[in-house]
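User: Second chain of the day. Same drill as before.
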Amino acid sequence: MNKHLFLNRLLTVVLLAALVLVLQPTPSFAAGAVRGNAGFSSNGLPANDDGSTGLVDLGFSANFYGQTFTQLYVNNNGNVTFDAPLITFTPFDLNSTGLKMIAPFFADVDTRVGNITRYGWDTVDGRPAFGVNWIDVGYFSRNINKLNSFQLVIIDRSDIGAGDFDFEFNYDKIQWETGDVSGGVDGLGGFSARMGFSNGTGAPGTFYEQPGSAVNGAFLDGGSNALISNSLNSGLSGRYQFQVRGGTVNTPVQQNLNSCGAPTTANSVVGELPFRTQAYYEPGNASPGLFVNPGTYWVLGVDQNVEYYKIILACEYVWVPVQNMQPNYDAVWQGRALPTDVVDGSDSSK
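Assistant: Same format as last time:
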């Protein structure tokens, strides 16, 4: 072949390849909860499994339970931490961890194939903001047959008070919940994702897990606690907003209320579980691995032997020992006594 002809053909191939790369679509944002600010994608965490950035500047000061931070670590597995990078891939209980972390979707993200984790700075409603995008990301090991799109946005609110900030968890698509070595099969089951935050002390009021955390199928699109279909402190489906004032996160008190249309009595009330507790589908009839995380739950009544309270968890009825449930002493329910009504000992009231 003529050398010049060969070079011309080679140049044509190179130009066509470059054109394909330029025209290749970038990760798309739904017109919903995930914010499309360009700045939030200005930096990338290179393709990895269980990796983290070094310390990254927030761009402002954030008072998180009495400690002021100006930097954090972006971790590939759906969270950020303040005190150290986190390589752990199987989600653990956010209510008892010793780490200071904020986790929109703590699970085994694998970006060695497909899209990578991105982060950067922009503004939200005129306020400085730092965002992390996990858009169309797959799961371990190198799986992209199911994809998730979610985002963390931290917004400076020093206009209200020094160190005050808001943070958002935004979701547009949740198709998988578990990595292959976290007990999952094809992205489902096993030790599934958790969503929430912790200041690492385990003290009451310093941590939160969204209902549906660690519940198989709950966070998935169409699940009982589907992240894209619900919201918190927002009128936009898929957006969960938290305010941090004076260092304390104003967590919702109505996180497990009777949104499932369950029958109640005049005495039904919200109760509090201060610790992770074994639960049962029928009084005393345990299902292996069924536990209820700390939080507030709608309590319907007791069994006929007054040994178990019937509560609602992720739109399911479960039973917890009476000695573990407490009245929820807050400004809304004013410590109302837990119900003494005897309710059905089975699941037939569903």
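Residues 38-249 form one domain.

User: Great, on to the next one.
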